[in-house]
Amino acid sequence: MPAALVVLSAVPIIAGAVRLTELTGGADITPENARFFAAPLPVVLHILSVSLYSVLGAFQFAPRFRRRRSAWHRVAGRVLVPAGLVAALSGLWMTLFYPRPEGDGDLLSGFRLVFGSTMVVAVVLGFAAIRRRDIARHRAWMIRGYAIGLGAGTQALTHLFWFLIIGAPGEFSRALLVGAGWVINLAVAEWVIRRRPANPTRARSAP
Question: Which residue has the higher pLDDT, 71 or 180?
C-alpha cells in the first residue's frame, strides 16, 4: 500500500519539482507561469506541503511498520496535520486569488473550493478526534483528508485516459476529469474505512 501511494504521488511531485526549478532557476516568464512569479510563496508552500503530506502519509498505511516503530505514527501525525492544512489552505488561496489559467472555468474553481475546504475539515476533525482518543473517527477522517490530498495523482490518470481515447479535454471536460479524481479517491477511502469493523476502543494515552 505505501509503495502504491508513493507511486501515485510521483506525477504531482515531479510536476511540483519542475515548477520550483522554474521559479528558482530564472526561467522565462510566460502567460502560463506569470501568476507564480508574481506571487511565488503560495505555490511554493503548496508544492512542499503536498509532497511531504503525500509521501509521509503513505507510510501511515503500513501496519507492520507502525507496529515495529510504535512512536512513528504519532511523530508523523504531528507533521502531517500542519502539512495537510498548509496544502489545503494554500490551494484554496491560489484558487481564489491567482488569475485563472486558460481552460479553467467556474466549475473547476468550484470543485477546488469544495474539495479543498473538505480537506481542511477532514484534517481538523481527525485531529480533534485523536485529542478525544476516538481512534475510529480519527482514522476515518484522516483517510478522507489524505484521499483528497492525493487527488492530483488520480487526476493525472483520468486526464491520461481521456487524452488517449478522446484527445485534449475542453473546459467542461477538464473540470469533470479533475473532479473525478477526487471522487474516485474518496470512494476508495470510504471502502477502506468500511472494509473492516471499526474498533470501538479508544486509545489509553494521548497522541
Answer: 180
pLDDT at 64: 75
Per the CB < 8 A criterion, the answer to whether 115 and 145 are in contact is no
C-alpha distances in angstroms, 19 versus 26, 43, 55, 59? Answer: 11, 9, 18, 26
What gap in Å lies between CA 42 and CA 40, rounded to an integer? Answer: 6
Provide the residue range defining the domain that includes 172: 2-194
On whether residue 35 sits in a domain, the answer given is yes
Give the C-alpha separation, 88 to 86, whole Å: 6
Are residues 77 and 59 in contact, defined by beta-carbon separation less than 8 angstroms? no
Contacts of 71 (CB under 8 A, 6+ apart): none
Of 74-78, 94-98, 159-163, 202-206, where does mean pLDDT reach its minimum?
A: 202-206
Q: Determine contact, residues 11/67, Cβ cutoff 8 Å.
A: no
* Number of structural domains in the chain: 1
The one-letter amino acid code at 178 reads V
Would you say the pTM of this structure is higher than 0.70?
yes
In a domain, 39, yes or no: yes
Q: Does 100 reside within a domain?
A: yes
Q: How far is CA 27 from CA 21, 45, 54, 186, in A?
A: 8, 19, 27, 36
